[in-house]
Amino acid sequence: DSMYELSAKNDRLIWNGGRDREEELLANCYFNSMNLAMDNGIRSIAFPSISTGVYSFPVELAAKIAVHTVNRFLQDNPDSFDLVEWVLFDTHTESVYEAEVDKLYDK
Q1: pLDDT digits over 67-91, tens only?
Q2: Reported pTM
Q3: Burial of 68 by CB count in 10 Å (0-12 exposed, 13-18 middle, 19+ buried)?
Q4: d(C-alpha 14, C-alpha 26), whole Å
Q5: Closest Cα partner for 50 from 36, 20, 79, 70?
Q6: How many other CB atoms are there within 10 angstroms of residue 42's CB atom?
Q7: Alpha helices, DSSP H only, in 1-107?
Q8: What fold is seen in the domain 22-105?
Q9: Lowest CB count within 10 Å: 15, 24, 99, 106, which one?
Q10: Residue 10 has pLDDT above 70, yes or no
Q11: For residue 64, how far is the Cα from the chain centroid?
């Protein structure tokens, strides 16, 4: 398998209490990454919990945005990816993301 590193602008998505469109910008990070990967024929992608470390984005809100943005992209582009993975660095973040994913299937 080939690995790609999708370049991102060097902007920092720092949580500022939601006053600077952070939620929209975070959703765009996931959407634009998936769109770029799809446009380049990349069939698998992995994401960290963007901006929830030193940039202080609340994990619960970030997980909701990430999971729902990725899910919506996959619904709109059902044949775009074979695999989407989360690369999460601590058990708390992992449990928050798992709970958010579970909510999608409990409906």
Answers
A1: 999 999 999 999 999 999 999 999 9
A2: 0.89
A3: middle
A4: 10
A5: 70
A6: 18
A7: 22-39, 59-76, 91-105
A8: Leucine Aminopeptidase, subunit E; domain 1 (3.40.220)
A9: 106
A10: no
A11: 9
